């Protein structure tokens, strides 16, 4: 996610160094009440705002920000702006969280509807079989909501269709093992930042660059 944030900063004329500052802030947070936490693992601007408030309520980090010419508060603000930008584009992304129950033995997807974006009926059985196979870790970044958020994060994950439904104009038989993968909302949003969507492997490669 760092690399994606860095690209966003450059595209919007912001200092790319803020991407590294977010890592520094994450390391600081691990020293207080946010152990095993990474700011790049969240996707909610409101949560980021709350974390920012907690961070600067600690004198040493408030002083650190002052000594650094407000570098840390500026990086926080840009990251929150980045998350808000992602959130504003979610209406353009087809998510399979809301699905319809079916009694059929075979699993089908389709029934295209035009509202603001294309919405497809989805079978709960397909999601269930996918998650039974792959579990609840994001196949891109490995994030697990239950491990970070505890009980409220249990069983939460998006399911991504490897073959985008927007490219399918007729009903087809879905193989949940071959066609579906669990992904976190951040990675899902990044997959759909382009049309046609990025592949899982392409987004993985962006994350891999962060480790270089």
Briefly summarize what is shown.
The protein is mostly helical. It has 10 helices and 5 strands; from the N terminus they run αααααββααββαβαα.
Q: How are the SSEs placed, and which strands pair?
A:
Elements: H1 2-11, H2 18-29, H3 45-56, H4 59-67, H5 71-88, E1 108-114, E2 118-121, H6 124-134, H7 145-149, E3 158-161, E4 172-173, H8 176-179, E5 180-183, H9 185-191, H10 200-210
Antiparallel strand pairs: 1-2, 1-4, 3-5
Helix pairs in contact: 1-2, 2-5, 3-5
Helix content: 40-55%
Structurally, how many domains make up the residues? 2
Strand residue content: 5-15%
Outline the biggest β-sheet. Answer: 3 strands, antiparallel
Architecture overview:
The chain is built from ten helices and five strands; from the N terminus they run αααααββααββαβαα. With 212 residues, the chain is mainly alpha-helical. It has two domains: 2-88, no CATH class; 92-210, no CATH class. The strands form two sheets. It has a three-stranded antiparallel β-sheet, with no helix packed on it. It has a two-stranded antiparallel ribbon with strand order 3-5. Helix 1 packs antiparallel against helix 2 (18-29) and helix 2 crosses helix 5 (71-88). The longest helix is centred in the middle third of the chain and has 18 residues, at 71-88. The chain starts with a helix and ends with a helix.
